[in-house]
Amino acid sequence: MSVREIPLFIDGKPVRSESSEWRDVVNPATQEVVSRVPFATEAEVERAVASAKDAFREWRKVSLAQRMRIMLKFQALVREHTKELAALITEEHGKTLPDAEGEVGRGLEVIEHACSITSLQLGEIAENAAGGVNVYSLNQPLGVGAGITAFNFPVMLPCFMFPLAIATGNTFILKPSEQDPSSTMRLVELAHEAGIPAGVLNVVHGGPDVANMICDHPDIKAVSFIGSTHVGTHIYSRAGAAGKRVQSMMGAKNHCVIMPDANRSQAINNMIGSAFGAAGQRCMANSVLVLVGKAREWLPEIIEKSKNLKVGPGIQRDADLGPLVSPQALKRVVGLIDKGEKEGATLALDGRGCTVDGYPEGNFVGPTIFTNVKPEMTIYKEEVFGPVLCVVEVDTLDDAIEFINRNPNGNGTSIFTGSGWAARRFENDIDVGQVGINVPIPVPVAFFSFTGSRGSKLGDLGPNGKQAIQFWTQTKTVTARWYEPDNLSDEVNTTISM
């Protein structure tokens, strides 16, 4: 099998990097090198930003209707190429094909939302606000925007960024994860097939040095980041210090509460899918199960069902979870499981040493469950980002709410219950940005904003929905009066009245 050479994408075309630093991209089920990605040079980043800055002069003048037509064509192309994009995701990330196809679908939602730009980017007007004066506001693009994405959703996360940024009239620099860039690059190619002009969407690859160049560059006006708390805090601080608008969606420790009055089979099946799908490599995975009252009696069934999940390469459609993205990720997750045992949690289901026939080199970890987990334990405090579930037992809903609110993160949480009263109490009292009620992964549809909170988010405005329109535009307010040509006056008015 030939190894793909991943290009940069600058000024409307793929560009072979002149960098001396290239990294192998490896299939996590086989360790086969499938592509090579360059770490862009400073000159190449400068070239990409210059292209975006130059393209902004004309792109900002393109009508909302024309931008909408491009987005309509883009969504049609992505829909048409769903299976191709999913296959690239699975090859480099490892998630199962059905999961990868679902990821493309969630990305499509954002592109479809961008197709509504003609009604989203509207200002306001007050006619005759004071003595023949009209006051109106305009929502205008910022200029060059940038996005830095994590590996776990190589199609969906870029879609959380550039479609709405471009639809609102900005140009864009995208730095995808170097761990699985091929599906992102194919997405960018489809965007250009749809009619995005040269220079409006550019791609540079790299690690911390390239991310820092983006944060520091004076011609980049806004930066969107999705990834770990450690990196996200750095991006927010550095880009903010450079005077940029920044949104930083970061780490999580999501809790799923199961009440004893919940639909038992639905609650258990959905919770297991949330915890172990994508091998736990989701920022919205419910990695902590909070069993309330008699729901703790369901634990043996939860363990047994988890034990029966099928682990395999992502290309096997009947696999429930695939490999972790890299050997480094495997080592880290196994190390955290080891630490959980040493710190006194009960290992009720051990996924270490998981083997898959025909794939001896795969980065596989099976479903793992810890019970008797305490808040001070590392497996509870850290985001494992693997198929590891921590189980906590409490007596009442109030205890569950108090326990969750003590956690510093606020990305997402879910409750399974048959009681409207309990659900309403939970949604009102829980201090978490995204809440699911009988929904295991509470990522809202794309015409609502992604609203993580507390330690999971820096910046006032999140991706998607109305908040994304606000993030990628700036408001200009105009106060205007027009005089009749023959309305002459010698009077000088030194007051501030209109």
Automatic annotation (TrEMBL):
PANTHER family: MALONATE-SEMIALDEHYDE DEHYDROGENASE, METHYLMALONATE-SEMIALDEHYDE DEHYDROGENASE [ACYLATING], MITOCHONDRIAL
Top-level EC class: oxidoreductase
NCBIfam families assigned to the protein according to its UniProt record, in alphabetical order: MMSDH (TIGR01722)
GO biological process: L-valine catabolic process; thymine catabolic process
UniProt family annotation: Belongs to the aldehyde dehydrogenase family.
E.C. number: 1.2.1.27
Keywords for the protein's UniProt record, in alphabetical order: NAD, Oxidoreductase
Example of a GO MF term: methylmalonate-semialdehyde dehydrogenase (acylating, NAD) activity
PROSITE patterns from the UniProt entry: ALDEHYDE_DEHYDR_CYS
Ranges where the Aldehyde dehydrogenase domain occurs: 17-478
InterPro entries: Ald_DH/histidinol_DH, Ald_DH_C, Ald_DH_CS_CYS, Ald_DH_N, Aldehyde_DH_dom, MeMal-semiAld_DH
Organism whose genome encodes this protein: Marinobacter pelagius
The keyword Ribosomal protein is annotated on this UniProt entry: no
Name by which UniProt lists this protein: methylmalonate-semialdehyde dehydrogenase (CoA acylating)
Keyword NAD: yes
